[in-house]
């Protein structure tokens, strides 16, 4: 497809994308790297009670890193500190460390833990800018991007972007369900759960995680899987980025790459209420091979589009679409390979300036209420992604991702500028509050929002207490603490 803006593409096709929060670090060829020997391991952070105050010794840290350490006086710093959203260009971290291996993370923790905020950054898509902490140390793991496919398993460095993950998997004839934005990092996506266009067929990204390597706040490199560090492994599957340590690689199970039929339905202006009602009745009756979303666009009149992907052919999809009790004004359909479908959904890699939040639909909400909330908010989109299918095959407590029984997630997205950011944020909050009043009260941590009321319960439900316990176990001194950390 041509290089159009990501949201322009979504508005045209009725498709959505997945965002991510602060990510993690380090690749590995084949199996994840073994923990370094004690003699090679950098010093662990000192206990909180004995940590010196004041800034780290940046020169000493620079000498220990395999990559660069950039300070504010360095010429590349202004670019190196940037997140995906230009609204956070005003954030001023103290330093950006270019991470090349797990030992670099350990060195950073030994030098800076307890002295200033520390956050890892992969794709930099934290919706609240948490991966660029003011006055803190950014662990930039973008160079840790290797994707190593071995049979039905893939080991991915935490700095890998989705576009590179998909390319490597497609080349090997394999598939991993994940998001649609090409520059989202695998780390933040996975740690928050990983909603995507194949979720109803294959589950969330985190459902395919078999092990992860994590540098925890004490400087230790740990392997977390079902048999080793099981509580940490549970928390990493949907407990949010930046809460438990810095992940240095992920190993996932994969599936054979399928052929996919994509579709887009457009409806007349003013038909959003009845179309959303019909979509909510229809989606739960469809097989898991079908994923769909509906985009409700604010304005006067309110507009809506339905899009989606089907693991199967066009004739079977046509029959399923015929059961939707809403009549589109136009319909397009296209059969694609797995790689072609991921390209179709990806849109542009350009940075975008926006304000966003989320809600979760468990039981159907009134289409008229949603349409009324969107009315007048020109430029705002409510991107409603279908769940169910394989996502619901696990219980809410099986992993940290709580919303297993939900019908859909709602991303409330509005373009903004530095000048109108405050008013746009107020509009988004008004719609988010209205959605909660209509019955959609949960939230998705990968669309993290500092203004979301009762955010801990919204993101984590009854899993919040266990997640807090895991966070306290692995980071008792709050080395990775941020505004919405556990």
From TrEMBL:
Please give the residue ranges the record annotates as the region Disordered: 26-59
Please give the PROSITE patterns that the UniProt record associates with this protein: FAD_PCMH (PS51387), PROKAR_LIPOPROTEIN (PS51257), TAT (PS51318)
Regions of biased composition (Pro residues) lie at 43-55
Q: Residue spans with biased composition (Low complexity)?
A: 26-42
Indicate the secretion signal residues.
Answer: 1-22
For this protein, the record's SUPFAM superfamilies field holds: FAD-binding/transporter-associated domain-like
- What's the cofactor? FAD
Q: Name one GO molecular function term.
A: oxidoreductase activity
Transmembrane ranges, per UniProt, are none
Instruction: Please list the residue ranges annotated as the FAD-binding PCMH-type domain.
Output: 88-257
Q: Which family does it belong to?
A: Belongs to the oxygen-dependent FAD-linked oxidoreductase family.
Its recorded name reads FAD/FMN-containing dehydrogenase
